[in-house]
Structures are given as structure tokens and as C-alpha cells.
Design a protein that fits this description.
The complex is a heterodimer of chains A (168) and B (416). Chain A is of the alpha+beta class and 168 residues long. Chain A is 49% helix and 15% strand. Chain A has a single domain, classed as Sufe protein. Chain: A (Alpha-Beta Complex), CATH 3.90.1010. Chain B has a seven-stranded mixed β-sheet, with helices on both faces. In chain B, strands 9-10-13-12 form a four-stranded antiparallel β-sheet. The chains are: A alpha+beta (168), B alpha/beta (416).
């Protein structure tokens, strides 16, 4: 079904109107960013992690559409109170399900939110100087996708500068 | 039978509509994409569905002759408003998209033995841009004239681009997104000077009824006009084709009163378009002044009242009287359109998300807006029907909506 406009479901609308866990966290243990404003979506996650590697609290800031805001918000709800190992198991599909389904054109919002989460988890262990056995060495699908979007933004930025140069 | 997914989408949209219940004041400003018809236009159309002229105008009976008479009188009126020599020069089409497709394909393809170059600008509507690109895949070359930071085409580059191979030049009179009024008369003179065989088409959908526009004064060969852009019904427009200019049909079928568009004529829509034209031209100057007043009040209120806002397109007389296009930094456009909708203000955005495309508005990118600036753009088009209360209400709602969306953005992306 490719018919536009794609109406958001009530859960996404509710999270858009009243996002949970919104805002910068001053005492965050780790902060991670994914996406680029050039591509129209970018997420920042703030995680407060305790000594047992449990996420005590999570918050987000989001530059993006309603689906981006809703998926970021739901991820912060899904990871609250769980271990980093369990948080790592969250997939973009489970995020899409948790917001009541995403239109196919908005799947990338769920992917970006999970990409930002996994980036935060990886960053936490990198700062700690350890790597638990469950943490894959290779970037996950969602991390790769986030990276791809950021690379695309760089390419677009270069292309624009080149075209700007041609005009002069 | 509807699939489960389709049922879900219908339920979703019902919930979205429910979220709008209780709105006390609604302001429709998305006149770029569709419009509200004045009662006079609806009333003028209604008898033509079931009271009179409901016949096919090519047939030999009373309802058919009534339809013929109605369509010819309508064409005569539209021809007068456009400044045509004869009513034969007006060809009704189902809208701007179809008229532009007809103009580009119908003019360029028959000329392909003489030349295969089409010249357009970087800021043309998709119904020109995409058609030209389609022809490019079929052996034509397409030159796109760049624009400056206000969207004005470079006449110098136009002169360089038009050569002996050029069969068609298509440049909009007024840009549909940012309202830039183009120097069409000068452009026509340049094209004629470079290649007298090249045809000149202009999409005048945002000029007709909004700025002085006369096909003979400008010297164009082809011109597109659209009904809903002047508060007429959707699904009808026209292509002006200057007499003795060769344009061929792009669709085949039963030919009726419209030489270039087959199929049964939609008499009620033609009447609606004509009535909308009469209404707009009856008080042309007063309507234009009123639109300009609303436009400037919105632009001033938004750019002075909200920090970090950019005006897209020129200011003052170089801009169409109805166009308000601004970019709100740190504010994603689709999210903003939804927030505004929930508060009763209906607009559109040039963001990639809002447009269901991978890239933001090509017009905003062409004037040098960065992608994130384009993603945060909002387009409003005012009409003579708006009231001072509508404009004041919009100026009350927009700053709050921007503030809330910027609150979600927080520090994300700042300084990148």
C-alpha cells in the first residue's frame, strides 16, 4: 500500500502530543546521537546507567517527524529498568510494534532510534574499557543504517557545496 | 473487501480526525495543494449536474447543445481573461498537471526531428520537471536554468542555454512554492532572439488571477492555468495554445469540443472554473491588495515574532501576493504541520517527510537553502476569502507550535 498521506495511528499521535522522557539529562552516564538534520531526522539519547549495567533512566531529544518523536520516546520507555544486555536485544521491529505499527516509509525512524540506542550502549562500554561477550564487535544492522544515513548527509553536503561552487 | 492494513489506516485517520474535535477556529492556508470553494462557485456548478447542460456536447440533442453552448461561452470568458485572440486557443484539461504534461510532451515530441533540447529552470513544478526528465530518458537533452537566492531565473544562463537544437522552453510565470515573479517577457524575447522556432511555455497557475497576466503581452506560445488556485473546483484547468502553434494530443480517444484533450467534457467543473475566474477578475486590484495585506502581515508577524526564521523567496513586489514561505530552524516541517493542524491551522511543508519523498523541496534547495532549512519550511497561501481574524489566529498559533516542536528538538543537531 503506497497511498499517501499515511495516517499515523493513535499511539504515535499520543506520543507526539505528549512525549514521555523528553529532554536533556544533566547527569547522564552516556549520551549518543544518530542521524543528521540534513536527512530530516536526528535523535539524541541520554542514559543513566548504574553499577550493575542497568538503565535507571533514559531520555531523548529529537529533530524529526512525528514517527521519529514517537519511536524515540517509546525506546526510552522500553529500556527503563532493564540491563544493557536486554536493551541490546531490542530490534527496530519490536519498536515499530510498540508504537502500534509504522507505515513502511517510516520504518527508518524505528531503525534510527534503535541505532542511537545501540550506539549509546557501545559508547558506554568503550568509555569503560570493557566489552561483554554479548556485545558484537561488528556494528549491528541498526548502527549500520544510522551510519549510512550520516554518510548520505555528508555526500549531500559535499554535492551541495560543489553545485554552489559551479554557480559562482 | 478491504485488507486488514487498509481497515487499520481508515481507523487511524478517524482517530486523527477525532483529535481535532472541539476546534473553535480553523484557518485553511494550504491553497497550494487544494482550496475551499466560495459558495457562489458551488452554486454556479450545481445546476449543471442535474438541471441543465448535462448532455455530451458533441451529441445532437438539447442537453448536448446546452453543454456545447455552456462550454463555448466559458471558453470565451477564460480566453478574454487570458488575453487570447480566439476562444479556440483555450483547451480545457483536467488540471495543471495534465496541461503541463500536454504542453511539454505535445509540443516537444512532434518537433523531435528538428531538435531535441528542452530548456526549463531548476524551480519548475514536478509536472514540468518530471516530464522533461522523462523525455530526457527518451533521447532529449534537458537544460535547467539556475536561479538566484530569491528564486529569480538567470536570463544570462537562459541565453546561453537556448540554441538551434532547442524546441521548447518552459518557465513558470510565478514560482509555485516561493512566489518569485519571473521576467517572462524578457525571457521570451531572449528565446526568440536565439531560436525563432523554439516554443515558449509558461505555467501561469500561480499568476492567473493573482498578478497582471496576458498571453499576448508576454508573447508566450503556451500557458497553463489551474482552477483551484483561484478558488475554483479541483480537476479542471486549461492550456492556452497560441493559434497556428502545433501541439499534438498525448491521449487518444473520443474527441469532443476540446481538440487537445479527449474524453467527455466535465461541464460543471468548466462552469466552476469560469465562475471562479469571473469572481477573481471582477475586483482584481482589490483582491490583490487584500491578499498582499494578509501576506505581509503573516510574513512580518512570523519573521519578527519568532527567532531563527528565514523568508524563502523575495519580499514585496517581486513576490506573488498570496505566497508566504518561511523556514523555521531547529523545527522539522512535518511535525510542525501536524502540530498546527491539531490547533486548526492547515499548511504544507517542503520537508522530505511531509512530502513522502527522500529529499526536501527542490525549489528550496535550488535557492541555496541547506537541507535542514528546507526540512523546516512551511508554505501558506492566503486568499481574498481570509479575514483579519484568520490571520491573527494564525499568528497566535504558529509561534506556540514552533516553540513546542523546538522544545522536542532541544539541542539535537544544533551547531552541526
Amino acid at each position: 500500500m503506497s497511498r499517501a498521506p499515511l495516517p499515523y495511528n493513535p499511539k504515535i499521535l499520543e506520543l507526539f502530543r505528549n512525549p514521555k522522557n523528553l529532554g536533556k539529562m544533566e547527569d547522564a552516564t552516556v549520551k549518543a546521537v544518530a542521524g543528521n538534520p540534513m536527512c530530516g531526522d536526528m535523535i539524541t539519547f541520554y542514559l543513566k546507567i548504574n553499577e550493575h549495567d542497568v538503565i535507571e533512566k533514559a531520555s531523548f531529544e529529537s529533530y524529526g517527524c512525528a514517527a521519529n518523536i514517537a519511536t524515540s520516546s517509546i525506546v526510552t520507555e522500553m529500556i527503563k529498568g532493564i540491563t544493557l544486555e536486554d536493551a541490546w536485544k531490542i530490534s527496530y521491529k519490536s519498536v515499530a510494534e510498540s508504537v502500534g505499527g509504522l507505515p513502511s516509509i517510516k520504518f527508518h525512524c524505528g531503525i534510527l532510534a534503535v541505532g542511537a540506542l545501540k550506539r549509546a550502549i557501545r559508547k558506554y562500554y568503550e568509555t569503560k574499557g570493557t566489552r561483554p561477550s554479548w556485545l558484537e564487535k561488528e556494528p549491528s544492522f541498526e548502527e549500520k543504517q544510522a551510519l549510512e544515513e550520516e554518510e548520505l548527509a555528508k555526500v549531500l553536503s559535499k554535492k551541495m557545496k560543489l553545485e554552489e561552487g559551479k554557480k559562482c | 473487501m478491504l485488507t486488514q492494513v487498509e481497515c487499520g489506516l481508515i481507523e487511524n485517520v478517524k482517530e486523527l480526525l477525532k483529535a481535532h474535535e472541539g476546534l473553535k477556529h480553523e484557518v485553511y492556508l494550504d491553497n497550494e495543494n487544494s482550496s475551499i470553494l466560495p459558495d457562489e462557485v458551488v452554486e454556479a456548478m450545481l445546476p449543471y449536474y442535474n438541471r441543465r447542460a448535462y448532455g455530451n456536447p458533441t451529441l445532437t440533442h438539447k442537453p448536448g447543445w446546452e453543454a456545447f453552448e455552456t462550454i463555448m461561452e466559458s471558453a470565451q470568458k477564460v480566453a478574454t481573461f487570458l488575453g487570447c485572440k480566439t476562444l479556440e486557443e483555450v483547451n480545457f484539461t483536467p488540471g495543471e498537471t495534465e496541461a503541463n504534461n500536454l504542453a511539454i510532451m505535445g509540443a516537444a515530441i512532434p518537433m523531435s526531428e528538428k531538435g531535441r533540447k528542452i530548456v526549463i529552470s531548476e524551480v519548475e513544478p514536478l509536472s514540468v520537471l518530471n516530464v522533461a526528465e522523462m523525455l530526457q530518458k527518451r533521447g532529449f537533452t534537458v537544460a535547467k536554468i539556475p536561479v538566484d537566492s530569491e528564486g529569480l531565473i538567470s536570463l544570462e544562463k537562459l541565453e546561453q542555454a537556448v540554441d538551434k537544437e532547442t524546441v521548447l522552453v518552459s518557465l513558470s510565470t510565478v514560482n509555485h512554492e516561493i512566489g518569485t515573479i519571473q521576467p517572462i517577457k524578457e525571457a521570451v524575447e531572449i528565446v526568440r532572439g536565439r531560436n525563432s522556432n523554439a516554443m515558449f511555455h509558461t505555467d501561469a497557475s500561480d499568476a492567473y488571477g493573482k498578478i497582471p497576466f496576458n498571453v499576448q503581452d508576454l508573447g508566450v506560445d503556451l500557458a497553463t492555468v489551474s482552477s483551484y488556485k483561484i478558488l475554483g473546483p479541483r480537476g479542471i484547468g486549461a492550456l492556452y495554445v497560441r493559434e497556428r502553434v502545433n501541439v499534438e494530443r498525448i491521449l487518444e480517444g473520443q474527441i469532443g469540443t476540446q481538440r487537445l484533450w479527449p474524453g467527455v467534457e466535465n461541464t460543471p467543473l468548466i462552469v466552476g472554473f469560469t465562475t471562479a475566474s469571473e469572481l477573481v477578475f471582477q475586483n482584481f486590484e482589490a483582491n490583490r491588495t487584500r491578499m498582499q495585506e494578509w501576506r505581509d502581515k503573516l510574513i512580518d508577524g512570523i519573521t519578527c515574532g519568532i527567532p531563527d526564521v528565514l523568508l524563502n523567496g523575495p519580499a514585496g513586489d517581486k513576490r506573488a501576493p498570496d505566497n508566504v514561505n518561511t523556514s523555521f530552524l531547529r523545527c522539522e516541517g512535518e511535525a510542525l504541520t501536524i502540530e498546527l493542524s491539531l490547533n486548526g491551522v492547515y499548511v504544507s511543508s517542503g520537508s522530505a517527510c511531509s512530502r513522502r519523498l527522500l529529499q526536501p523541496s527542490h525549489v528550496l534547495v535550488a535557492i541555496g537553502r541547506k537541507f535542514d532549512e528546507a526540512h523546516g519550511s512551511i508554505l501558506m497561501k492566503v486568499t481574498r476569502m481570509h479575514t483579519e481574524e484568520d490571520i491573527n489566529h494564525t499568528l497566535k498559533i504558529v509561534p506556540r507550535a514552533v516553540q513546542r516542536i523546538r522544545g522536542i528538538t532541544g539541542s539535537t543537531g544544533v551547531g552541526r
